[in-house]
Amino acid sequence: xxxxxxxxxxxxxxxxEPIAGGFVIRIDGAxxxxxxxxxxxxxxxxxxxxxxxxxxxxxxxxxxxxxxxxRIADVSEERGAGIEGRPTGKxxxxxxxxxxxxxxxRVAVAAGTHVRRGQTLVILxxxxxxxxxxxxxDGVVRQVAVAEGETITADRVVASIELGAPAxx
Length: 169
Hints:
Elements: E1 2-7, E2 10-19, E3 22-27, E4 30-38, E5 43-47, E6 50-57, E7 60-63, E8 66-76, E9 93-97, E10 102-107, E11 114-115, E12 120-126, E13 129-134, E14 139-144, E15 151-152, E16 157-163
Antiparallel strand pairs: 1-2, 1-8, 2-3, 3-4, 4-5, 5-6, 6-7, 7-8, 9-16, 10-12, 10-15, 11-14, 12-13, 14-16
């Protein structure tokens, strides 16, 4: 299941896939394995070695002592690339964001480049691993917002793509 979730005003792309013994959760492209144990008023959630107690009351999530405002939008059963909560039809220009901080190792496209869904836009080095940031759909790169060697933060726009623009033959 895919959905967009606003947490304290910040939009996140979430995908949840049930697996034996728990779930795989993708948040803005980062992948986590989780287990949940529901209780009457709360849910114990274990992600890796960390355990959290979560209560949801109306549009608030209470995680430990912290209260976060939630709003869920665009629930979908199909899987796909996360896009920053904008229209995704033909001609829509979407911002592709980094899901983690890191150093830009390589920029694989330039403005005007025709790309296909899943094609690598940028390679980011984070925690001594190289991570590819893919195009969310077929289209044309309208802007590249990072440069090789640059250190970027999580949620930074790396490129803008006009979806549905004709691909090169």
